[in-house]
Amino acid sequence: MSELKRHAIPEGVETEGWTLDVSGSVGRPLQLERRDLTAFPVETFTEDFACTEGWVAEGLSWRGIRLGELLDCAAPAAGSECALVRASDGEYACSFTIDRLAESLLAVELDGDPLPPEHGGPARLVPTDSDSDCWESIKWVSEIELGTSSLAAESTARGTALGRIDGA
Ligand SMILES: Nc1nc2c(c(=O)[nH]1)N[C@H]1C(S)=C(S)[C@@H](COP(=O)(O)O)O[C@H]1N2
Ligand SMILES: [Mo]
Question: Hey, where are the domains in the chain?
Answer without folding.
Answer: 19-166
